[in-house]
């Protein structure tokens, strides 16, 4: 296919720099630049935003973001083999791409991004969920980002967007929907990647809410949902009994039947329960 920016096609870039994907790094590359541009567009208007990208690899999504007008891209890449290819992209877009070699779980980004900030990434599958939870649970809210547009395994995407009563509903849905508005914006089959993963993938877009959807203390909500979904087949009076001896009184106070199971309890009800527990302390 024709390039979107005058740079070589990604297959040529990968061959030139010897960038075969490494399973240990969770790498699965998208080589279709039309597709990476589509993912970039799903992040919204980029011209007035800095973009944080994690795991750019050979730079396919990076090029899509820059071609779609991102004000500036800061890309964090752990694999040193990819740096020369990314340097070529940076040279093609002077002053608009900064590449940081490092682990996104530990790299210090302070002072490198100017708000508004959008995070857009084809996340390595082995760290995707951990990064999402970190971005959703900062000590202060609103966070430094205004939106997340992230690639996940399709099953993880279902867990992020699931509603009470769905099989995929759990702690991840609670955390994501408490402080953000998530939706699936694109689904991709395995053959969209090189090498093809064993599962389908999906892009999830999350807009940060100005404040939590319902009042609750984050740490208490995390404790409640960890206990409830840690034993999701048990009735709540059993799964939550370790939180307080009078858990049934708290459940009754917020209108949750003690015999209910976690997957049928709404986000609002979980927040109300967390509030009730905090009020008793």
UniProtKB/TrEMBL annotation:
Gene3D superfamilies xrefs: Ribosomal RNA adenine dimethylase-like, domain 2 (1.10.8.100), Vaccinia Virus protein VP39 (3.40.50.150)
EC number(s) per entry: 2.1.1.182
Free-text function comment from the UniProt entry: Specifically dimethylates two adjacent adenosines (A1518 and A1519) in the loop of a conserved hairpin near the 3'-end of 16S rRNA in the 30S particle. May play a critical role in biogenesis of 30S subunits.
Listed GO MF terms: 16S rRNA (adenine(1518)-N(6)/adenine(1519)-N(6))-dimethyltransferase activity; RNA binding
Catalytic reaction equation(s): adenosine(1518)/adenosine(1519) in 16S rRNA + 4 S-adenosyl-L-methionine = N(6)-dimethyladenosine(1518)/N(6)-dimethyladenosine(1519) in 16S rRNA + 4 S-adenosyl-L-homocysteine + 4 H(+)
Pfam families, alphabetized: RrnaAD
Main enzyme class: transferase
Ribosomal RNA adenine methylase transferase N-terminal domain mapped to chain residues: 35-210
Positions that bind S-adenosyl-L-methionine: 28, 30, 55, 77, 103, 122
Recorded family membership: Belongs to the class I-like SAM-binding methyltransferase superfamily. rRNA adenine N(6)-methyltransferase family. RsmA subfamily.
SUPFAM superfamilies membership: S-adenosyl-L-methionine-dependent methyltransferases
GO CC aspect terms: cytosol
Keywords tagged on the record: Cytoplasm, Methyltransferase, RNA-binding, rRNA processing, S-adenosyl-L-methionine, Transferase
Locations listed in the record: Cytoplasm
Protein name according to UniProt: Ribosomal RNA small subunit methyltransferase A
Transmembrane segments: none
């Amino acid at each position: 296919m024709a390039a979107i920016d005058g740079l070589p096609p990604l297959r040529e870039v990968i061959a030139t720099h010897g960038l075969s994907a490494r399973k240990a790094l969770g790498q699965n590359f998208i080589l279709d630049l039309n597709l990476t541009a589509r993912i970039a567009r799903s992040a919204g208007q980029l011209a007035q935003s800095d973009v944080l990208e994690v795991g750019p690899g050979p730079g396919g999504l990076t090029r899509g973001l820059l071609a779609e007008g991102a004000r500036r891209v800061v890309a964090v890449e752990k694999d040193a083999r990819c740096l020369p290819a990314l340097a070529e992209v940076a040279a093609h877009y002077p002053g608009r791409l900064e590449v940081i070699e490092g682990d996104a779980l530990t790299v210090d980004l302070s002072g490198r991004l100017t708000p508004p900030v959008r995070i857009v990434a084809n996340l390595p599958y082995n760290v995707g969920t951990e990064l999402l939870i970190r971005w959703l649970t900062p000590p202060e809210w609103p966070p430094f980002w205004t939106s997340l547009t992230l690639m996940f395994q399709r099953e993880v995407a279902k867990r992020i967007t699931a509603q009470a009563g769905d099989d995929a509903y759990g702690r991840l849905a609670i955390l994501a929907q408490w402080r953000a508005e998530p939706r699936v914006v694109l689904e991709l089959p395995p053959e969209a990647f090189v090498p093809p993963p064993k599962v389908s993938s999906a892009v999830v877009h999350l807009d940060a809410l100005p404040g939590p959807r319902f009042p609750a203390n984050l740490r208490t909500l995390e404790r409640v949902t960890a206990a409830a979904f840690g034993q999701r087949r048990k009735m709540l009076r059993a799964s939550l009994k370790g939180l307080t001896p009078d858990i049934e009184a708290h459940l009754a106070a917020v209108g949750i039947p003690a015999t209910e199971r976690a997957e049928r309890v709404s986000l609002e009800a979980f927040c109300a329960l967390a509030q009730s527990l905090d009020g008793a302390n």
